[in-house]
Amino acid sequence: MGAQLRVYKRRIQAVTATKKITKAMEMIAASRIVKAQRKVTASMPYATELTRAVTAVATGSNTNHPLTTEVESPARAAVLLLTSDRGLAGGYSSNAIKAAERLREQLAAEGKEVDTYIVGRKGVAYYGFRERKVSESWTGFTDSPEYSDAKKIAEPLIASIQKDTAEGGVDELHIVFTEFVSMMTQNAVDGRMLPLSLDKVQEESTAKDEILPLFDFEPSAEDVLDALLPRYVESRIYNALLQAAASEHAARRRAMKSATDNAGDLIKSLSRLANAARQAEITQEISEIVGGAGALADASAGSDK
User: Fold this and answer.
1) CA quadruple 187, 153, 174, 209: dihedral positive or negative?
2) Cα–Cα distance between 39 and 300 in angstroms, integer?
3) Please, which residues bridge with residue 187 across strands?
4) Counting C-beta atoms within 10 Å of the first and last residue's C-beta, which end of the chain has fewer, N or C?
5) Contact 80, 173 (CB under 8 A)
6) H/E element holding 186?
7) What is the Cα–Cα distance from 196 to 34, expressed in whole angstroms?
8) 3-state class (DSSP) for residue 172
9) What pTM, to 2 d.p., does this model score?
10) CA-to-CA distance for 112 and 205, rounded, in angstroms?
11) Is the distance from CB of 285 to CB of 5 less than 8 angstroms?
């Protein structure tokens, strides 16, 4: 019985140590969420105004540009998937990967070839294990992205949209990331970055009672769009990276809180079993003592006769 009690004590010690780790990770993730939220909020005005400027240029001119012009029969599309570098975040990365798989199937059903670009070791590992082709990948910054990371990602995507499909270019750019809604809700979403849907932007502006500004373009509308194209793609990717980072921290915080709570429940259960084992051991010892005392008493009574 003593051996069983020792087993329970060792398990309690191990679970207690694990609980301390998960609690620390929960607190770290909670502190990082606030910083990530601030970055998301700070990036929104620039992205919004840049989109409105691009829309104003496109609607105020007849320029044929890959930023705003729909291809009649798109044959190839690029999909940028944002996942995490680390695990212990529940279903964060797997949900984004599932959303990317659904988008890939949808594009394939439309007759489009798909080039995949991945951010995060989890996505790279998923595609690598299945031996799927990845056009390019980036890792090492998913929990705290910088604008320089967005520029690095945007470069090959911009180059691909500017090429003809016969030369390996694409007609559309899509992005899949996890949108941060609240501390408890993060949704894996997909959206088309290019060509920019002008009708959608105008509808959103009308819904907000906004009037798109009018501009004079110097030296030309095409040159302005050429200058705005990398800025627009970079800002969209940067905002998605920030939202993904906030979602990752929120998902990790929730997962670690669940792990901490489960560890606490397991410690209580093991403590009850250890107490029961200790009581059984004490009861057995008392029984042995009483039995030994009774045997001595019987032996003494027999010797007196």
Assistant:
1) positive
2) 87
3) 179
4) C
5) yes
6) strand 186-194
7) 31
8) strand
9) 0.82
10) 31
11) no
Residues 6 or more apart in contact with residue 211 via CB below 8 angstroms: 205
**Tokens standing for 62?**
């007849």
* Element containing residue 179 per DSSP (H, E): strand 172-180
Tens of pLDDT, residues 235-255: 999 999 999 999 999 999 999
**Of 278, 277, 271, which Cα lies nearest the Cα of 12?**
271
Place of tokens 């949704």: 187
What SS3 state is found at 209? coil
- Residue 149 CA to residue 140 CA, distance in Å, equals 10
Token duo for residue 230: 């990398």
Encoded tokens for 200:
């959608």
Tokens 């594009």 belong to which residue? 107
- Under a CB-based contact definition with an 8 Å cutoff, are residues 33 and 191 in contact? no
pLDDT tens string 95-121: 999 999 999 999 999 999 999 999 999
- In angstroms, rounded to a whole number, what is the distance separating the alpha carbons of residues 253 and 233? 30
Only one residue has tokens 């670690």, namely 256
User: Encoding tokens for residue 201?
Assistant: 């932007």
